[in-house]
Amino acid sequence: MANIETRYFKNINDIRDFLKLSKPVFFHGSQTSMVVPYEKIEQFCLQENIDSFLMGDLNQMPPVCEVDDNGVLTIRGSITWKEGREFAQTKGRNILTSPTEELAALLSGIATSCTGERCFGFGTYRDHLIEVTYLDHQGELKTLRHENLLIDHELFQSEEARKLLTDYQKSYEFYSQFKNAPFPRLERETDLMTGTEGQLGVIIEAKIKTAPLENVTYIFLTLPKWEEDYSLHLRVFDKVQNLRDKIFSVELIDENSWSYLPQEMIPRPAKDIIFLEIADKHFDEIYESVLAHLPELSEDDIFQVNERKCKDLRMEIPRAVFESNSKMGVTKKGTDVQVTPERFQSLMDYYRKMTNVPFEYNLFGHFGDAHLHFNYMPKPEQVEAAQEMLEEMYKWVKEEKGSPFAEHGIGLLKKRFIWPFYEDVHFQMFAYLKKKMDPQNLFFPHGFMSMKKG
Ligand SMILES: Cc1cc2nc3c(=O)[nH]c(=O)nc-3n(C[C@H](O)[C@H](O)[C@H](O)COP(=O)(O)OP(=O)(O)OC[C@H]3O[C@@H](n4cnc5c(N)ncnc54)[C@H](O)[C@@H]3O)c2cc1C
User: Fold this and answer.
1) Quick check: 454 pLDDT over 80?
2) Between the N and C ends of the chain, which has fewer C-beta atoms within 10 Å?
3) For residue 5, what is the enclosing H or E element?
4) pLDDT confidence of 128, banded at 50, 70, 90?
């Protein structure tokens, strides 16, 4: 039996004292990660022959949230997206990232390179970071600035290290327009903490850009079932691509997804829905340029939904899907794939092929970014078949140069699937950073950065 323990941290000195003990630890925030089996960690450790797993709970770190005159939001300690957003709104500002799960922690979101609905209009969380402060392996506070290039950081001053970074960055070029590539960006100083999933230090504070609060309208479009005909879906996709300064989110919820929600939450008609979050000041223009050019949609197929209801619907679907799987005793069998806009139709074609199975499935997610979550809902005896389908799909994603895990990261569950996406330069970079920043491999030692090539 694996020894699973949790240690709670109440302030920075607690963490510092702990780091002196040189114990391997997995620091965490709200535990909403889809790629860490929090509820089944013991089972996971048994399968992986891990004797002990120490969790470092950061939820008692004192919360601090401040906005300065320039709209820069400073976050310290345990603050969720919901709390941060509500606080910013009291100051007339809005946070530009909006992960569907609002109870995730803002600082953890740096570790996971969080994205979300508003990524369509405002880019990724990584783009909004100004500064990130972390505790290094010796308990020293270090501050990284987004405006500073990583190549100028002290870690990359030797000729060898500079060459490694240059080669690594070359391998990223193809993915530069993706939300998250199969490997971290490593372009700016702050990237040392972004998407590295807590493997290089403990994030303590961040300074984040915000925008002035503005009124928005959520419009739902009712479409045919995508499995039967997704031509209209693709037209909407094409029409919104150049309107990212006016439309902030473009999300899909398919007809199958509604069945996991309580009856009273389901909108009518319960068909495929694409919803758009549109800045009020551009609403008429969007109506004319997008909605008026979709003659297949009648007036009844286009309706407005209030912001809270829209957010609740969007958040409850992945939660309900997750719960439905858990009740069945099945670990989530879903995708997190992003492709380039040019390959989006191929992704939809592939998903359509994946529906040819004897078990339930559903599709939802960040439609405008060509980034959707396709989920299988197998019974326990069907899990193997679902797993095989997903394994085949990852081969296809690699051939297509898609990003297999564009927002949920790798955690513990996706390591074996990400491994084929890494080349020598990625393994070398991870080993270099671990050696320099975590020489005893104490920060999340079972994470992707400790994987070996062979
Ligand atoms: C319903 C649902 C919807 C979701 N939607 C989205 C979405 O739209 N976009 C998205 O990006 N994600 C989404 N997720 C995934 C998840 O919410 C994110 O990965 C989130 O950033 C995790 O935050 P957390 O506080 O729960 O982190 P945790 O699960 O506690 O930790 C996640 C990782 O971050 C590391 N970490 C946490 N805190 C720190 C710290 N202070 N310092 C260093 N490392 C740290 C941990 O070691 C771990 O590797 C969704 C999850 C659910 C359940």
Assistant:
1) no
2) C
3) strand 3-8
4) very high
On whether both 208 and 220 belong to a single domain, the answer is: no
Q: How close is the Cα of 160 to the center of ligand 1, in Å?
A: 34
Mutation to probe ligand 1, out of 18, 28, 412 (largest number of atoms < 8 A from CB): 28
Cα 76 to averaged position of ligand 1 atoms, centre (Å):
16
Number of other CB atoms surrounding residue 349 within 10 Å = 12
User: What is the per-residue pLDDT for 330?
Assistant: 83
Count of domains forming the chain: 2
Contact 346, 339 (CB under 8 A): yes
- Statement to judge: residues 84 and 204 lie in one domain: yes
Total residue count of the chain as it appears in this document: 454
Cα-to-centroid distance, 271 and ligand 1 (Å): 30
The pLDDT tens digits for 200-243 are 999 999 999 999 999 999 999 999 999 999 999 999 999 999 99
* Mean per-residue pLDDT of the chain: 95
Q: Do residues 284 and 136 share a domain?
A: no
* 255 and 285 both lie in a single domain: yes
- Containing domain of residue 208, as a range? 64-212+423-450
